[in-house]
Amino acid sequence: MVRPYQPKGLAILYEDRDIIVVEKPPGLLTIGTERDKSRTAHTILNEYVRKGDHRSRNRVYIVHRLDRETSGILIFARSESAKKYLQEQWQETEKRYITIVHGTLAAKTGTISSYLAENKAFTVYSTPDPALGKLSHTEYTVVKEAKGFSVLEIRLHTGRKHQIRVHLSEMGHPVVGDNKYGRSINVAGDMALHAWSLSCTHPVSGKRLNFTTRIPERFIRLVGNIEKLAAEPVEVLQGAV
Predict the structure, then answer these.
(1) How far apart are CA 99 and CA 216, in angstroms?
(2) Calpha distance 235→230 (Å, rounded)
(3) Of 13, 57, 86, 132, which is most buried with the most CB atoms under 10 A?
(4) 8 A C-beta contact, residue 14 and residue 235
(5) Cα dihedral 63→33→6→191 (10° resolution)
(6) Residue 139 region, left (φ>0) first, then alpha (ψ -120 to 50), else beta?
(7) Torsions phi, psi of 193, nearest 5?
(8) Between the CA of residue 7 and those of 18, 25, 44, 109, 208, what are the distances in Å?
(9) What's the N-to-C CA distance of the chain in angstroms?
């Protein structure tokens, strides 16, 4: 599909009159905060749907977020009703990530569970007190080991702030390039965490949509080809409308 107005800084994977699915690069905020008013994925897409007309009432709505340092798939709604539906169905949305961590994991598959809380310095941590934190589950599978690193496929059962980064760091295997929860030496440039695959139900048609991206080049430069994941399709849309 030819788009006369292409958003600068985002790759559109799919769009229709109800949703827009994009691939966010690392370093870009999903939406601005009180402390940071820099250009975001949200503002870029608002400009895109307004097609250069600042008087247009067209806009996009935030369904979920990715950390600034995390790349990968983001879905935006084009109406309040679509946003509400997607958020209400979020537990049924399957979210998979790929990441590279330091070291070799003893257990090649597993689920990390803990109560996650946030302190006044905006740092997330695990606590044994369920009154202080929210129960969080991170399922992982090792798909490759190379050069002192491990490539993991992650399935999120909950979506807490910094969940993957905190769980893996507290396990002793921080995400490569994570300057907040990881090690001070950054061997990857951008952080090696990517929202690789997302499967959701369309808010209007009710059909199942599946999206998958390529493995980021920064991952391949660090550990070589990731054969198990490389064979996956770039974009898969089942019953797209």
Answers:
(1) 10
(2) 12
(3) 86
(4) yes
(5) -90
(6) beta
(7) -140, 125
(8) 17, 13, 6, 39, 26
(9) 13
Q: Of the candidates 21, 26, 139, 25, which has an alpha carbon nearest to the alpha carbon of residue 78?
A: 21
Write the secondary structure of the chain as one string of H (helix), E (strand) and C (coil): CCCCCCCCCCEEEEECCCEEEEEECCCCECCCCCCCCCCEHHHHHHHHHHCCCCCCCCCCEECCCCCCCCEEEEEEECCHHHHHHHHHCHHHCEEEEEEEEECCCCCCEEEEEEEEEECCCCCEEEECCCCCCEEEEEEEEEEEEECCEEEEEEEECCCCCCHHHHHHHHCCCCECCCCCCCCCCCCCCCCCEEEEEEEEECCCCCCEEEEECCCCHHHHHHHCCCHHHHCCCCCCCCCCC
Per-residue burial over 33-66, b = 16 or more CB atoms within 10 Å of its CB, e = otherwise:
eeeeeeebbbbbbbbbbbeeeeeeeeebbbbbbb
Positions in the chain short of pLDDT 50: 1-2, 231-241
CA nearest to 72, candidates 37, 27, 39: 27
**How far is Cα 182 from Cα 193, in angstroms, rounded to an integer?**
12
Query: Which residues are 110's β-sheet partners?
Result: 140
Tokens of 66: 């990715």
Query: Active-site residue numbers?
Result: 67
**Domains, the chain, ranges and CATH?**
11-230 (3.30.2350.10)
Q: Which two tokens stand for residue 205?
A: 């048609």
Q: What is the pLDDT of residues 79-99, one digit of tens each?
A: 999 999 999 999 899 999 999
Question: Which single residue is written with the structure tokens 């430069």?
Answer: 221
